[in-house]
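Quick bug: Lipoprotein-releasing system ATP-binding protein LolD 2 output formatted oddly.
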Amino acid sequence: MNSPVLRLTDLRRIYATKAGPLEVLKGVNLTIMPGEIVALIGPSGSGKSSLLHAAGLLEIFQGGRVELAGIDATALPDAARTALRRTALGFVYQFHHLLPEFTARDNVALPQWIAGVSQNEAKARAQALLELMGLKDRAEHQPGELSGGEQQRVAIARALANQPALLIADEPTGNLDPTTSAFVFETFRKATREEGTSALVATHNVDLARQMDRVFRLDNGRLVEG
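Here's what came back:
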């Protein structure tokens, strides 16, 4: 039986405010299996980003457990958390954050170079991912020469570059018009399926959420399926 890619157990996130402690996540439980694409919905301020940051080992949480790719990351020291992020996670944000002076292919190759992959091997992998994203003829273009939808597809390819077990995506189509958003998401879904990567996707777009394997809603700090 396959082990979960991500397991959150009784996850709690509390922020200190002038009015006192604010508990944003009140004992969240979530399990994502290999290959699953899971949607996370909820209004602004409901804690979606806090959940993603905790699951992605980007923020300290105040209670509960995070297990990623079979490793209990709850009490890992900073260096070990960083190493686990690099090997097990890919991140996609609303804004692509591509390096403007690099070509599309080099933007996708960069995480591989950082991981120690040879230049030729990284570029070959980058080219293959760009082809998977429908960008075969745009590999030598810089971000400023690409449309918004093309830039976001490059960002998705970059997130997949090191073959992560889990993609964490925070409003990955939120900066795009509805037609482009639908196309980019379909490409995202196709690519993750072909790569065998799981994904946790926060979105305001209920229509996109319904196309994923499961949908969870944050409601008053608790996670509700459906």
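Actually, after a second look the formatting is fine. The chain has one domain: 6-217. Closing.
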